[in-house]
Amino acid sequence: MKFFVDTADTDEIKSLAEAGLIDGVTTNPSLIAKSGRNMSDVIAEICDLTTGHVSAEVVATDFDTMVSEGRKLQKIASNVAVKLPLTMDGLKACRTLSDAGTAVNVTLCFSANQALLAAKAGAAYISPFIGRLDDMNIDGMEVIEEIRIIYDNYGFETEILAASIRNANHVKLSALAGADVATVPPNVLRGLASHPLTDKGLAAFLADAEKAGIKI
Ligand code: E4P
Hints:
Layout: E1 2-6, H1 10-18, E2 24-26, H2 29-35, H3 39-49, E3 54-57, H4 63-76, E4 80-85, H5 88-99, E5 104-109, H6 112-120, E6 125-128, H7 130-135, H8 140-154, E7 159-162, H9 168-176, E8 181-184, H10 186-191, H11 196-212
Helix pairs in contact: 1-3, 4-5, 6-8
The chain binds erythose-4-phosphate.
Erythose-4-phosphate is lined by residues 6, 26, 28, 107, 127, 129, 131-132, 163-164, 183.
Subcellular location: Cytoplasm
Organism: Henriciella algicola
Enzyme class: transferase
């Protein structure tokens, strides 16, 4: 499973990339706004921090402007993946940009049928939003499971990118459901490494080493 980090915070991305933990980055307009920086500058800087795809989202909603914004974003760096919303215009723009060789991440997916359309439109990634479904008492993981079955039934190569991940359990369940990628907020990604028994065990080993005067 690939891990993307879901942030526009370049310090966080740098530190996680140095730890060898990430395969790419996703952003959205809310995350770019939170960074307080110019979008092209921040996307260019992120693209230098990873060789994997960096999703950059259009802000237009009509086909023509989405395609022209997508082309501008794609010119920032060769590893930009253009993010388009799952609307009819977004799907049409996905077909146009994908046919021209641009990697497209179709976002704001909340159902298996939407994911089927994105695959037919040639998307490189489909982003089902688990957390936002869970917020409405709908099991987001069921949607990932359904998409996996449908894509496997027909041999679609679109990668399932589990998005809107809020906790470690979402990561585990996405992996079990066969998502190709999980995009994870930095705090959740760091949290995956921690376990109280690891801390307790390490403290005991270090105490014994100190008592015995072990030096390496
Ligand atoms: C990533 O591609 C999505 O935009 C992001 O995961 C959405 O997460 P949220 O529902 O926590 O805002």
